[in-house]
Amino acid sequence: MQSAIGDIAHKAEVAISGAMESNKKIAEIKHDYRNPKDGALLTSDFGVKNPTHDNWLSATTEDRKGPALLEDNLAREKVMKFDHERIPERVVHARGVGAFGTFKLYESAEDVTSAGVLTDTSRTTPVFMRFSTVLGSRGSSDTVRDVRGFAIKFYTDEGNWDIVGNDIPVFFIQDAIKFPDVIHAGKPEPDTEIPQAQSAHNNFWDFQFLHSESTHMFMWAMSDRGIPRSLRMMQGFGVNTFTLVNAQGVRSFVKFHFTPTLGVHSLVWDEALKISGQDPDFHRKDLYNAIEKGAYPKWKFGIQVCPESKQDDFDFDILDATKVWPEDLLPVRYIGELELNRNVDEFFTQTEQVAFCTAHLVPGIGFSDDPLLQGRNFSYFDTQLSRLGVNWQEIPINRPVCPVMNHHRDGQKRHAIQKGKFNYWPNRASVFPPAKASEGGYIDFPEKVVAMKKRMHSAKFSEHFKQPQLFYNSLSDIEKAHLTAALSFELDHCDDPIVYNNMAQRLCDISLDLAQAVAEKTGAPKPTKATTPNHNRKVKGLSQFDFSREAQRLPPTIATRTVAIIIADGFNLVEYEAVKTALSAAGAFPVTIGPRRQPVIPSSGGKGVTPDHHFEGARSTLFDSVYIPGGEHVSTLQKQGRVVHWVREAFGHCKAIGATGDAVKLVQTACNIDGMVYSTGDVLDSYGVVTAAGVGKPESLKEGLKMMKGAKHFL
Ligand code: HDD
After folding, report:
1. C-alpha angle with apex 393: 388 to 399, nearest 5 degrees?
2. CATH homologous superfamily, domain 96-388
3. Which one of 64, 217, 323, 330 has the lowest number of neighbouring Cβ atoms within 10 Å?
4. Closest CA to 90 of 356, 414, 397, 373
5. Per-residue pLDDT at 689
6. 714 has pLDDT over 70
7. Is the pLDDT higher at 668 or at 282?
8. Inter-axis angle of helices 573-585 and 698-710, nearest 10
């Protein structure tokens, strides 16, 4: 017997031809599309052709408008539908953006798991991914300081597998029962609903102090990881400890890792603050544009495996989600690649209605006794009931691509029509018999459990400072400085001295230098003694510089970086075109900025170039780099406050700046750089400023671009 869902999926598949056929999920979703290009006329929700978008039926005469009539069911339908458009936003991770993609395995992990998705290297598994911030509402800004959600739904041949992770590998709490507290403390305060999408307030930091297991995660959140440059340039982590079981029934513990091939990059805080106002959709636009331009973001997928025999070998509990597994103890093995390559067609039906659940696993992958994970397994299913209703699994984006066969029935908004007499088991026709292991049934690992029923964790859960110290020690000096500044900013926004005094004390458990620097800025008494001595150990794999392209043995790249090219009337067209072409050829995204979005005429005359934005329509903060060609326009640009500020601000944010010909002087003045030597192809590496006398010599341009790619902040 085949269910209606199976029927629909099959029919839709047949209808889609060519390459689309290989992606079953795309095929399944396709059949629900309403395509405005069909040329169809306006109808009511029930298919009756509707004669108006505009006029409510009313008792009207030629010269006087009369009362609207309740009998207008078409108008009532329109307004009533609108009245009920909203569903509850996610209680956390409300603001997000999603995209479709694929997952491919290049090395089988059959030594540790029997899961098809992790062993079959010939498969292409369709995925849907949603990135999010945690604390803000659906309409908040993208570049706030926060943890980023990193949730992936793998539509595998054996059912849906969800990894509901973050861009930070640890969590604030060890036990799921505390989740409402940590989130209440972080969200806007209950009396004033202030602040929006910010951890910079009394309640958040009060909780952090009173709850020392959070220390490790707040250190990560205050580091540059909290303000990513792009969702395409962040790592992703499954965070919780899962298990893998191989065909021989041997179980291991596992952590999941995703490392972006573009490297891990962040904004600086001043940029993040400004972009929040200048373009609150900065991250979602960046993702959308990259996918539309075919620059598909990719992540290497890795597993960190701990054999069961080693479970007790470490000074931390491997089931404690506030701890990383340091890579010198358990290396990451990269075995696959995730790529995002298709934007959604409609935000609500796809990105808003997608529902992830940590309990969605496939045979060969299992839970562990991680107490955070166990609670999550309940919460995700439960929250969908109020957000999407009991039949949320039938919403197209949430449906698996394999057949669904069971005796679950009815409930609100049930769509599947299940034929046949039987809605119970056992039944006399043996409809939907259970699947044996040999038939692909999900078999729970037969684990022997001997324990006392108690509200407690193993002893190792009580140690909270060794790993935050390890994290801090492993950062570069720049990252440490940024972290110190971030803590100082956050605590400056706390006006209750108990809160910032306590936090200055807490930092003495990490580093006395850090505690003193933050105390001085925020007005807390300056601590004189480390409460917990720092062990001075470091490890690779915690600083984000360890995930630069160089660290991944990939050459530096300017690909997908946005470069603002600033021009005014009288610019040098040859230089403009040469650099723009070279940038595009290198995969960068050049954007022209001029005095108006009307043709700007070069010194050589002609039709001119129409800029993408005018000087007041965009800001330096929205771009990775700036280039100014030479030409007569320099005298105009020098008098433009916005342009001079643009260059100066880009310089202050350590961006690569390029100038040719007369524009070199403008950069020199704007940035007030003493002692710069201007000759063809000079690069002041520490500044990231690249200049050339002109682009007459192709060699110097090539050299300049090479140096621009290598400029420090692209690392
Ligand atoms: Fe959670 C959403 C990540 C702990 C309860 N969580 C949610 C999302 C992400 C995470 C990425 C957004 C999913 C989406 O895009 O729809 N959450 C995590 C991580 C955690 C974590 C990495 C720790 C390892 N979460 C956690 C706990 C609980 C929840 C301990 C409850 C006990 N999380 C939820 C939720 C949400 C959610 C309330 C809100 C919307 C949703 O689930 O679907 O159920």
Report:
1. 130
2. Catalase core domain (2.40.180.10)
3. 64
4. 356
5. 80
6. no
7. 282
8. 50
Q: What is the DSSP track for 318-367?
A: TT-TT----TTTS--EEEEEEEEEEE-S-IIIIIIT----TT---TTEE-
| Domain assignments of the chain as residue spans, ordered by start | 96-388, 468-547, 562-714
Q: Read off the tokens for 515.
A: 């505690």
The alpha carbon of 150 and the centre of ligand 1 are apart by a number of angstroms equal to: 10
Q: How far is the CA of 170 from the centre of ligand 1 (A)?
A: 13
Q: 468-547 has which fold?
A: Hemocyanin, N-terminal domain (1.20.1370)
**Cα 210 to Cα 203, 207, 213, 532, distances in angstroms:** 11, 5, 9, 16
> Which CATH architecture describes the domain 562-714?
3-Layer(aba) Sandwich (3.40)
Q: Which of the two residues, 36 and 142, has the higher pLDDT score?
A: 142
Confidence check: pLDDT of 7 > 60:
no
pLDDT at 708: 53
CA of 127 to the centre of ligand 1 (A): 18
Query: Is residue 286 within 8 Å of 338, Cβ to Cβ?
Result: no
Q: Tens digit of pLDDT for each residue in 246-279?
A: 999 999 999 999 999 999 999 999 999 999 999 9
User: What would you measure as the largest C-alpha separation in the chain, in angstroms?
Assistant: 91
Q: Ligand 1 mean position to 208 CA, how many Å? A: 19
CA distance 430 to 620: 67
Side chain identity at residue 277, one-letter code: G
Distance CA 83, CA 79 (A): 6
- Whether the predicted pLDDT of 39 surpasses 90: no
Question: What are 502-507's contacts with CB under 8 Å, separation 24+?
Answer: 502/205, 502/206, 502/209, 503/205, 503/208, 503/209, 505/209, 505/531, 506/208, 506/209, 506/212, 506/215
Where in the sequence numbering do the catalytic residues fall? 93, 166
Percentage of the chain surpassing pLDDT 90? 84
Q: Is the model's pLDDT at 674 over the cut of 70?
A: no
Kindly tell me the sign of the dihedral angle through the C-alpha atoms of 337, 341, 346, 347. Answer: positive
What is the ipTM, given to two decimal places? 0.99
For residues 197-211, give the mean pLDDT: 98
Ligand 1 pocket test: pick from 89, 93, 211 the residue with the most ligand atoms within 8 Å of its Cβ.
93
In this predicted structure, the answer to whether residue 27 has a pLDDT above a threshold of 90 is no
Residue identifier of the C-alpha nearest atom 30 of ligand 1? 176
**76: phi then psi, degrees, rounded to nearest 5:** -60, -40
Across 509-518, average pLDDT: 98
Ligand 1 binding site (Cβ under 6 Å of any ligand atom): 90-93, 96, 130, 132, 149, 151, 164-166, 171, 176, 179, 239-240, 321, 355-356, 372, 375-376, 379-380, 383
- pLDDT category of residue 518 using cuts at 50, 70 and 90: very high
Q: How far is CA 23 from CA 295, 554, 619, in A?
A: 20, 30, 40
Nearest atom within ligand 1 for CA of residue 380: 44
Candidates 625, 642, 622; CA nearest to 568 is: 642
Element (H, E) at 252: strand 251-260
Taking the CA of residue 166 as reference, the ligand 1 atom at the shortest distance is 22
